[in-house]
Amino acid sequence: xxxxxxxTSTTLRVHLAPPLPARRFLFVCRSPDVxxxxxxxxxxxxxxxxxxxxxxxxxxxxxxxxxxxxxLSHMDIIVVHLASDYEAxxxxxxxxxxxxxxxxxxxxxxxxxxxxxxxxPRSVTISSVEHGDLNLAKRRKVRPSKIMFPVEQSYxxxxxxGSNEEDESSSDSASDTGAPTPKPLVxxxxxxxYTTAQLDALPEVPTSKINVGDAVAFMVxxxxxxxxxxxxxxxxxQVTAKANGTITIATLRDFADRPLATKQRSAKRRRKQLLxxxxxxxxxxxxxxxxxxxxxxxxxxxxxxxxxxxxxTKGTWLGVEWESPTRGKHSGTHNGKxxxxxxxxxxxxxxxxxxxxxxxxxxxxxxxxxxxxxAEELTNVPKxxxxxxxxxxxxxxxxxxxxxxxxxxxxxxxxxxxxxxGVADADREETRKMLENVQTLVLARDxxxxxxxxxxVLRTMPNTHxxxxxxxxxxxxxxxxxxxxxxxxxxxxxxxxxxxxxxxxANNLSAKSxxxxxxxxxxxVPVEIASVEELHLECNQITEFxxxxxxxxxxxxxxxxxxxxxxxxxxxxxxxxxxxxxxxLASTQIASWAxxxxxxxxxxxxxxxxxxxxxxxxxxxxxxAQTIARLPQLEKLDGxxxxxxxxxxxxxxxxxxxxxxxxxxGDDLEATMAKQYPNIPELVRRHGLPAVASSAQPTTIKSRLxxxxxxxxxxxxxxxxxxxxxxxxxxxxxxxxxxLLMRWAKIRKFRVYLRQDEQEQWIxxxxxxxxxxxxxxxxxAAIRAVA
Length: 787
Fold this sequence. Notes:
By secondary structure, this protein is α/β, with parallel strands linked by helices. It is 22% helix and 22% strand.
């Protein structure tokens, strides 16, 4: 999308003026000019508007040929009037109204002198005005605060008293008494940033003394509240004609009793402003308070490292460190003098403190923009949608908008990517009152750079128990003497922070859950964190984690998933990880069963994740059996609960695998197995020794056959009704065995059981995808179908 297209896609706040229904809504304008914008509005409001409309901004009409991009900015207020009602209102209140400019040239305001008694000395009655594009070509070439228009004289227009002759006599007398010389109001360099107070100080001159070409300032009389609520405005212009007691003025600009920086902010740089004054570049604070602040200018971000003078230059400079590696020119040194130090070399430069620098916004401002503005947008959803099979009603959005727009009822405040820098001093009490119920606060990808900003937020919102500070711009997190509390702290995606910084943050807030993932963490230094019970360090570059065992005495959950540099599990010594019950090692490089054996020294370990690790690659059933048999304390593996029945089967499978892998028999079998594999004596005591099988792998189909007895009976305790000897492949699955039994026994509903010999118990074969080899079946075993 081009820059021009961005400007013509503008979100506006639309207010309907009486006699139209009292409605306010957000309107996304994509029209290039005002005429098409009005057509869009009429189309949207066709159910309540059937005639021509007039759009008004800051007290005067927007002309049809005026480009939207030059006159309207993001979240500007425009008031929609019925054309007939607007003309009557202007006539009645003597407020300027706008008409169409056919020639697209600069048009003029006709100001008539009157004897109206209720007007103030600086008020004039405007009989008509034709406000046009005001040389838009020039307006595009200069900043909005300057309009190139050279004139020599400037005055405040005073009220005409009596006839023209009286005016001349009074002006002569004023001249005789030494009336002050008019001060220049408009200079060749352009109109500068005047305030209403400065305009009040200009000398008053009767209209008879004003000549063509002079610049004048006059206060708009009886400005209606629905046009510009609560604002008294001055209008500045140049006298273009004078005849019969009436002067004609070309309107140049308006001044109002509100912050000029807010009024003059351009469409490209203005941010959302709804029912509050936006805190941005104009409210950045005193120069020294800017040091350490994150900022954005023309799409490039960085941090202010220095604010002050630079030798050999005039004015104040900002020494900044850019986030982009392509922007910096030095590391904070100019002409041999060091003004600041960059964390990353050659990222620094000096820039002027200009208005278009964005230092972010406060928590309250971001909350209002995120929730109140979005809530108003929900009220504009159409009540019904025409579908192929009729109308589809849309219900419930008004309720959602109402609930979302009530900041005092919010318990989750999601300000991810909203450029939040903290709490503003001006709205601290309002923030405390409006957001006192917030419990979950998300400030990820914002403009936080210093830990004191976080503490300030938490002091203002003391009920917060979950805090997300991921992907901010902290240089470091120091230890704090002030003890604040949150339950869960997330500082993910923070590669600029070390393990010491993360530990300081957790200790400062007494956090029970700490997440520090995706931060390129390599080294863990010994720092005690007594409060943390859950620690998430996934997607880092950790190679060793044993040091955590002695510094997190209450740790219960440890997530080390996707640490591809982690290749071994350290030896667990006495007292390490005494409370750890859940360990995630998924997608690591753990490849040795000796590492898994080390986990048996964790007495509280009940849940383990090993998916996508080399140690369980290949036959997953065998790997699962080995893990379960080696770690008798496990209750859950890779998210699946280990049932008592599965544990028994897996331990038998493990014993059979161990017996096949060694060359021993008889009395030496158990001792030999115990030397090579863990937990063998306990498993043999519970399940007995497995049948001895040759360790050589079968090479023919005949060598892979096992001779079994197929039986059918009514229960396991009675004698079989029928019996048959059968040779079966060890690779046959249970689901393949069942049709064979069905055809032979001529029964449809039955359960299948296995017994190696008469001294053992029957084992039900209920896992249909497992093959017979899994159950360590040998020649002479009985397989019974119980109907």
